């Protein structure tokens, strides 16, 4: 029995849809196929060769640490990006994920050892730099790497996917530099070194501080150290995890036999460890979201009650239960007994997630700030004067146009009056009355119609003959000198 011809018109709709669905599935399989261009053996060799931090890799790591530390100290994003491009720190992390995925314990422990060596080199070099640095202040680039969130974990996940996929190709792509920039492994370690250098200085200089200030400063420095290292650990863990997942999806050959029960136990441990690592970042992200919502409400509060006096304000978290609002006021002071009043306004009239403690400060402006403020005020005044000047010119032009129109109407009225006298002399018996309207508006066919220079004529004893009408129209045209006019006779 012969099979049906695919082009036969006797095919059912179900067969056509089935073939269409199969074609779409094949297209998507080809689009998302990772097997094409895959080099399993070459990927394992390349990762194992580059995972060791020794020799040239150790020197490259030290150089990248110094460059990143300089970029953080100078608050220069471009310099920090350059440091991430030359850093070999990602290779041992890929080695850890590969070793776990193919059950090569020797390779995994080797990668972990060199990963620890890389961390030690990075922390020592960055601590040394920030100890001798003449700057050593918390820049915005440093501050931005002390509060890791769940979003940073997502960046590491997709960066790790891109990294291992590009590393597993026969033809290597240029995605690795972009992955290094996206995952940002190097700067958090440098910030950890900055925190250690600050802590050493704090141990020496903090002995004369009172107990409350001592505890607050210690907590701030430990927050920098812990937050930055947690960000580094979060990125490293998710890069290794995504490496493990992709290696297993691509079915790389296993080095040692894995018992099914042991494999399930390892997957369970990995899932639980991932959850434990992710939870702090999710908690930090939630707190940052609440703080951002409170900042919106605080902005409204400042606009409502200190529109001119407040030159700057800052809302920051002090404790898990409250935030601190610092107001810098110029030319206005808030008495101590009024602080509670404003805190009550914040609590009752604004939707805050946490209570806010108010700390007003009398702002002191330097000569440069005063000069900039006066220059800004001068520009605002000049802008207002320019706006008023343009408005005055527009009003003057409008007045001139109205004056010209009034003169034209007076001239037209004089000519019309003279013409009407001539008309009465020309038609003493035939014309009973004549009226003039400069402009008449009437409704015609549901629309407004405008008819300028209208003359309404009433003839006596129906003497409005055609000749009289023509003669009247000629007299009016010549006498009034109007561009257009209309005559209605009855």
Report the β-strand fraction as a percent range.
5-15%
Global outline? elongated
Compute the number of helices: 15
Distance between the termini: 100 Å
The proportion of residues forming helix, as a percent range, comes to 55-70%
Strand order of the largest sheet: 1-2-3
* Domain tally: 3
How many strands, what sense, and barrel or not for the largest sheet?
A: 3 strands, mixed
Number of strands: 6
N-to-C series of helices and strands: HHHHHHHHHHHHEEHEHEEHE
Rounded mean pLDDT score? 79
Q: What integer value in Å does the Rg equal?
A: 42 Å
Structural class by sheet pairing and helices? mainly alpha
Unreliable stretches, pLDDT < 50, 5 or more residues?
none
Question: What is this entry, summarized?
Answer:
The chain is mainly alpha-helical and 490 residues long. It has 15 helices and 6 strands. The protein has 3 domains: 34-258; 290-362, GMP Synthetase, Chain A, domain 3 (2-Layer Sandwich); 411-489, GMP Synthetase, Chain A, domain 3 (2-Layer Sandwich), CATH 3.30.300.
